[in-house]
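Thread: "does anyone have the structure for this chain?"

Original post by V.I.:
We have the sequence but no experimental structure in hand. Need at least a predicted one for the grant figures.
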Amino acid sequence: MFMSILGLALSKRKASPYDLNDFLFSADELQEKYEDSARDSEHPHFSRERWLDAVNFGHSEQGYWSWVFEQVQADDDTWLLRH
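Reply from O.Q.:
Generated one for you, tokens below.
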């Protein structure tokens, strides 16, 4: 029941900058979704370059996909406040 209520809430949202289902995924699930064996995989909205900047400036000590997960969750909270 919780998922159906959550699914309804997600379906009523305005367009986000990327797939709304990303808000529901764990770091491992995000990695699996965007993994591409031909090149380094990355999320379409959160590049490895942005992650490296966060690491180099001391804003993160996390691995890439954990950082992406945190960025998606932060976007979800911010997005919900704006809409």
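V.I.: this helps a lot. The chain has four helices and no strands.
O.Q.: and Helices lie at 2-11, 27-34, 48-56, 64-82.
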